[in-house]
Amino acid sequence: MGNGAALPFTTQQAKDIYRLMVRIRACDQRIQQGLAAGDLQFQYYPCGGQEAIPAAIAPLLRADDYAVTTYRGIHDIVAKGTPMREIIAEMYGRITGTSKGKGGPMHLSDPKAGLMVTTGIVGAGAPIANGLALAEMLKGSGRIVLCSFGDGAANIGAVHEALNLAALWQLPILFVCQNNLYAEYTAFAASTRVATIAERAAAYGMPGARANGTDPAAVYTAAKAAIARARAGGGPTLLECVAHRLQGHAFGSEEAHMDQDALKAARADPPIEKFRARLLAQGIASEAELAAIEREAQAEVDDAQAFAKDSAAPGADELYADVFADASVIPDRDTPYAPGPERAPQAPRRKLTFGQAVNDALDVALASDPATILMGEDIVDPAGGIVKATLGLSTRHGSARVRATPISEQAIVGAAIGAALAGLKPIAEIMVCDFALVCMDQIANHAAKLRYMSGGRTSVPVTLRMVTAGNVGSFGAQHSQSLEAMFAHVPGLKVVTASTPADAKGLLLSCIHDPDPCIFIEPMRCYFTPGEVPEGDYRIPLGRAAVRREGRDLSILSYSWTMDEALAAAETLAGDGIEADVIDLRSILPLDMAAVTASACKTGRVLIVHPAVEFCGFGAELAARLQERLFGELKAPVARLGARYTPIPFSQPLEALHFPNAAGIVDKARHLLAHPHAAGG
Ligand SMILES: Cc1ncc(C[n+]2csc(CCOP(=O)(O)OP(=O)(O)O)c2C)c(N)n1
User: Does residue 564 have its Cβ closer than 6 Å to ligand 1?
Assistant: First the structure.
């Protein structure tokens, strides 16, 4: 569009947009200068050429609207209103940075400005944006979400899942695909068969639009319609803004993969200079005004850089801060974790199966706390979930709060994360534990880390429920795994599993109200076992093991469905006069090391039993810890009995060989008691 074409915004807005573009470039260039000087050290993804996109959208946003962006997001971050000082201080890894220096250039968050997530994982922000939008839609706040990602990200599964779900739920989001024509070293046409990203919108069932991303007027006009639609309840839009990348992928990286003629042409006509000329040509601003804006931007980054350099690095106390809400949960701290008391243990009891107890916990949470929502595949009535755990809940609490989802695990977990960031207490059902691997990025890179990466500015109080069908026969290798060790290996996740109906209810309610992300594993083997369960809002604190049987001769430490095997084995051993202390860990993290140690000290012999594969299983961690602490006091080396190192076989005789059982536990226990060290004294 020529310099004379009328602009769609007011004179003031035009100047504000120019100011933003200039501030963005000043920030972007100051960071690159810092890198060139060796003052800063990191991989940086410049935004040169894309400044107009967020700058032109900014006047259409409310201050409290949310933004989700990516590693190449400095322009989005400045435009959303994050203070320049905090941005630059984060680049320097200082305590005054957006994330106290713990996030870094790819992970800035500033909830005060509505900037909720910056992710270094391509496309991973889109599912989370859905959750933010869902929360605000349910609250009726009128807030919308601006979610930015690249053209390369448009090809990743998380984005496809998110766009489908956003359209299905008519969420108030503007998805902006910033098409800079390259994804790292690959040209757009080499990875994408369709000519535009915008045309994909139709396939998701949402409006799509394409704008020249170097022209603020074009971006503004397209975004204005989309944002108005989102605010009016008309759902999401996919807006593709095309703006040639003006440099290589990262600071200092080569440009040989780029079309040199196109690059030269784009560099000869950069968006800021183009807009500047237009403002002058139309008499919207004078040369003196624009020069003043440019000087102010330089002064702002000068000030921010000086502020950053004067700021301290985070102190050693920051290392463990913000992993969880309460650092004493962290297993490598010396501070013993002291869980609180049970809640309402004296309430009247009634007999429920494990599955009914899960249902009861969800019902209580939904009835008592309007912030609680549920989502998952097939969870609404009449199905009520594949194991009926959610039967009746959508009927009682409505399909707005008990939400059926497509088969999109990344979108489900991302939506739960986003809703949690926005203050809700979402519970997501991952039908089967093995399927968590499909959305492990959302779980391990986002739910687990967002509190830390934001320096404690955001938190993810989400509960992810999942069934494991281990040792029920017939489910085979992809529906029966026990992945607790994998989850526990990721700092930031709490990992809980129950073996009785009362625990299922009490632990699940604690997870739901916990300030951190909780993985709640429900063994199908226990699902139909009845037990007495307290009514109402009964809660068992996370991190307190239960002593199921007392004995002096050895300790059997277990959890999940292998508790049944452990108890059966203890019964058999008692027939031989061997009394076992049997402990149900209940949560892997927080870990009740005090209970474990007390039992081990009492008996001097420890056998750890778990349903997961023994090799690299949680038993290895527990055994190492016990041996480090109690080497001289133990009468025998700590023994383990987990599943064999094979995928879970289908054939029942083979499955029986794979999993630990009571006979195997008895055998191991007898070996422990016969250990020569003990026999010798
Ligand atoms: C899931 C994932 N895969 C690969 C990468 C490595 N990577 C970083 S940036 C990038 C290119 C992304 O291109 P695009 O989405 O077009 O965004 P742009 O960098 O152009 O802004 C890749 C592949 C990553 N960070 N995350």
Answer: no
Residues 637 and 623: their CA atoms lie apart, in Å, by 9
Same domain flag for 521 and 552: no
| Domain match, 502 and 638 both | no
Task: Tokens for 116, please give them.
Answer: 């909720």
Q: Which atom of ligand 1 is nearest to the CA of 121?
A: 26
Q: Are residues 502 and 557 in the same domain?
A: no
For residues 247 and 114, membership in a common domain is answered with yes
Is 322 within a domain? no
- Note the pLDDT of residue 1: 58
From 107, 244, 397, 479, active-site residue: 479
* 479 tagged catalytic: yes
What is the count of structural domains for the chain?
3
Q: What is the pLDDT of residues 329-343, one digit of tens each?
A: 999 877 778 899 999
Residue 3 lies in a domain: no
| Probe target for ligand 1 pocket from 43, 53, 122, with the most ligand atoms within 8 Å of CB | 122
Q: Are residues 555 and 508 in the same domain?
A: no
CA atoms of 308 and 93, how far apart (whole Å): 9
Same domain, 550 and 530: no
Q: 3-class secondary structure for 220-276?
A: HHHHHHHHHHHHCCCCCEEEEEECCCCCCCCCCCCCCCCCHHHHHHHHHCCHHHHHH
* 492 and 624 inside one domain: no
- Tens of pLDDT, residue by residue over 387-420, are 999 999 999 999 999 999 999 999 999 999 999 9
pLDDT bracket for residue 297 (50, 70, 90): very high
